[in-house]
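User: I'm writing a tutorial on reading structure tokens. Could you give me a worked example: one chain, its sequence, then its tokens, then a sentence or two explaining what the tokens reveal?
Assistant: Sure. Here is the example chain.
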Amino acid sequence: MQTVADVRALRDARRTGGTDVSVIVRAILGTMRMTLRNLFRKPVTVHYPDKTRAYPDRYRGLLALVYEKDTGEEACIGCRLCEYVCPPAVIKVEMLKSEKRNYAKTFTLELYACEFCELCVQVCPTDAIVMTKSFDLATTDRRELLLDKDRLHALGLQHERSWATGNRLRDMQGPPKQARAAAEASAPRVGEAPKVGAEA
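And here are its predicted structure tokens:
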């Protein structure tokens, strides 16, 4: 049974931080062991502006607009699918109708509110909007993150593109083309009875 003097001594030891010396020594030795172990490891920190790491192929970075490789014209036809599918509604497109094809008269993207969900890339029928492998568009002025068509085209020329395009992503989501063709060939036509099994 504890006496009043034992309880007072324990309380006074807790107030003054009095602890068993072996606990303190073990804590110091554990900390020093961790420090010495990490002292001889290869550093993992990359000093960013001077050195950069290679980003993975599926990295979702800044959005950009691209030009067609064959003709050099802008690939965007102003269909506004990216505007309709955008969850935070940060894309605004105005279509300009032309004799040969349509163009985007204006294309604005509010990058400061973008979720980088890649839905706009997935629905683009002409692969006009892509994600790049870059993220460094830091600024102190929010207005600089309101990107117009010219700035988006400049980003497309300046940075390396990510692997994903709308056509590639759509091809990955559906079954392979051979399996799709085989399924269509074996499917019954309208008005035709389905085949149950082999005839005897």
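What the tokens reveal: The helical segments are 4-16, 21-39, 81-85, 119-123, 149-158, 166-173, 177-186. Residues 21-39 form the longest helix (19 residues).
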